Amino acid sequence: MHDVLVVGGGIAGLRAALAASSRGAEVAIASRSHPTRSYSVAIQDGLNAALLPGDAWEAHAADTSAWGDGLCVPEVVEAVCRSAPELVRELDQLGVPFNRSGGRNGTALACLKLRGARTARAAYVDDMAGLVLTQTLYEQAVRAGITFYEEWTATSLAVGDGACTGVVALEQATGELQLLGAKAVVLATGGPRRLYEPSTASLHCTGDGIAMAYRAGAPLVDMEFVQYHPAVLKGQRMAITEIAWAHGAALATAGGTGVGEDDPGPGAFLRAIGQAAVANGGHVELSGTWDADQAKGLFYNTSYRVKQLTGLDMAKEPLPVRPAMHRLLGGVAVDAGGATSIEGLYAAGECAGTGFHGAAGLDGNFLLSAVSSGRAAGLAAADHASSTKEPDAAGGALDRDRTRVAEALRRPGGEPLAAMRRELGGLMHAHVGMVREAVGLQEAAQRIAEMKETHGSLGAGSEGRDYNFGLAHYLDLGSLLDVAEAVVASAHAREESRGVHFRSDHAARDDARWSVHQLVSASEAGPVLRESPPGA
How far apart are CA 377 and CA 336, in angstroms? Predict the structure, then answer.
């Protein structure tokens, strides 16, 4: 029995574990892969914070709220933006090698002006901030003596008498399910990028933490707000770093016509790029004013990977790019401390619906949110654990999952599962992507319900226990279908356009009716929605 169990080994999970450990809690992290192979390492931009003379947290908060298009939670925005400079300096002291004014030996942190900010505000580490933050936090977690369950896949939350008492998890090396008991659990499992094609997803971006909370009875929030990245390499999953825009990147058609730069908000910007890409053979071109030295220096990671994937030199040649799904802005509904509606259960990072991003997320705020929400959830979880006696093990979840897995091992899988996941990704992109309308959303909802029924008759396709990837794919698809159900229901209900949610049949923003958050809960009859005003 652990004091605090963190599910997920990325930036939010590592920061939560360190925060809980700092309060004297005995902490463990359960992660599907080694933490330094989490999706966090792919995030490239930086962390917004009012660090430079002339800037202020109030200006950061104003930019965040303006981009969030009326749905940011004011007290969350204020708390995060106020604490942002302290959070960045704390990371600096932990060993994150941020870029400095005057070079590596400079004393002041260098900052970049990212899209949507009125001033230079993003502390960065060349084009690899996520990678370096993950590595630094992992080293600190090892130093703190935090226990790691590496290559364990969480399958269910153990909930008894209205409280979370741990997580059922599958040890990939043995195929055995165990109950990892804890006084408090923090979900930090990332977003459901694999729900869409095209996307920037890695293999593990399946939204399993969101799905587990949804199945356990915790409401989700803001699930309709799905944000695309404007420049993902055509035919690949690699997003070109947002830092490129701070150094003169521009998008244009092959004929040289500029795309999107006159559109003030993220929604209009992305739709303009998407329309141009469709009209231009499936892509537009990204180029910039940087020279070869910049591409080899600041963009070393990006330029190297572009060269490996496409053979192109980004210092000399335009890159074929397209919009692709990048982030879900909602997630498990939490309060300012990361607490969900289930006692002892917390959420942080991309799987948490904090209200910080509102209807559109600002570049430079995502890494900040991961650090901030991870710290808050870890501290709250540790405080809860210190005031809670050791709970009785809720063994029902373990028994249910053992039965479910045993049945799945005997059922066929393989290509039918792969075909269903491909269909789901295309369905979500076509009907629940950058442009939605009622008929398409209804079609998506009906097809997802059919898929869920079919999924119940499929399985792993193999009875092997150790590293059974067929079983992993079966479980992952179940999570994706649950998340898809919630996204579609939320998008169908919101009959307006706001931020990155655009309804072609309700193209105007409707403050009189829709200045609310939507909460969606699971039921046997399907998703149930209710509304909550910002800050409630």
Answer: 9
d(CA 352, CA 370): 9
Q: Are strands 331-333 and 352-353 parallel, antiparallel or unpaired?
A: parallel
d(CA 169, CA 190): 17
* Location of each CATH 1.20.58.100 domain in the chain: 404-513
Start-end of CATH 3.90.700.10 domains in the chain: 227-323
* Burial label, 103 (beta-carbon count in 10 A; 0-12, 13-18, 19+): exposed
Residue 2's SS3 state is strand
Query: Do 225 and 68 touch, CB atoms closer than 8 A?
Result: no
The arrangement of secondary structure in 404-513, i.e. its CATH architecture, is Up-down Bundle (1.20)
- Angstrom distances, CA of residue 255 to CA of 230, 252, 258, 263, 284: 19, 8, 9, 20, 10
pLDDT category of residue 449 using cuts at 50, 70 and 90: very high
Q: What is the 3-state secondary structure (H, E, C) of 490-508?
A: HHHHCCCCECCECECCECC
Nearest alpha-carbon partner for 100 in 110, 112, 92: 110
- State both tokens at 308: 């490996």
User: What's the DSSP call for residue 467?
Assistant: T
Token pair listed for 301: 């990671």
User: Yes or no: is domain 227-323 CATH 3.30.470.20?
Assistant: no
**In what order do the strands lie in the sheet containing 352-353?**
352-353, 331-333, 220-221, 517-521, 528-532
Measured on CA atoms in the order 378, 384, 390, 393, is the torsion positive or negative?
negative
Is residue 9 pLDDT above 80, yes or no?
A: yes
pLDDT at 197 over 90: yes
Q: What is the CA radius of gyration of the chain?
A: 22
Whether residue 354 is predicted with pLDDT greater than 90 in this model: the reply is yes
Cis bond before residue 198 (omega within 30° of 0) = yes
- What burial class does residue 67 get, using C-beta atoms within 10 Å of its C-beta: 0-12 exposed, 13-18 middle, 19+ buried? buried
In the numeric block, the tokens 């931020």 are attached to 499
Helix axes 469-493, 438-455, angle to 10 degrees: 150
